Amino acid sequence: MKLKTKSFDSLLNKELKNKDFKKEYEVLSNEFTLAKEIIKLRKKEI
Which of 12, 15, 16, 43 would you label with 6, given CA atoms 20 to 30 Å apart? Predict the structure, then answer.
């Protein structure tokens, strides 16, 4: 049996249709953006 995989973006888009999820995601968006930038900078150092 072959497992079906989904991309993060497609899963996120599906979840963002949920009002409660979207509200919390927006509250945390600055934190997510900062975390992504830190990860990007760490990868540059390697």
Answer: 43
C-beta atoms surrounding 25 within 10 Å: 14
Which string of DSSP letters, residue by residue, matches 10-41?
Answer: HHHHHHTTSHHHHHHHHHTHHHHHHHHHHHHH
31 token code pair: 């934190």
Instruction: Report the sign of the C-alpha dihedral through residues 17, 19, 24, 26, in that order.
Output: positive
Instruction: Tell which residue, 4, 5, 28, has the closest CA to residue 16.
Output: 28
pTM more than 0.90: no
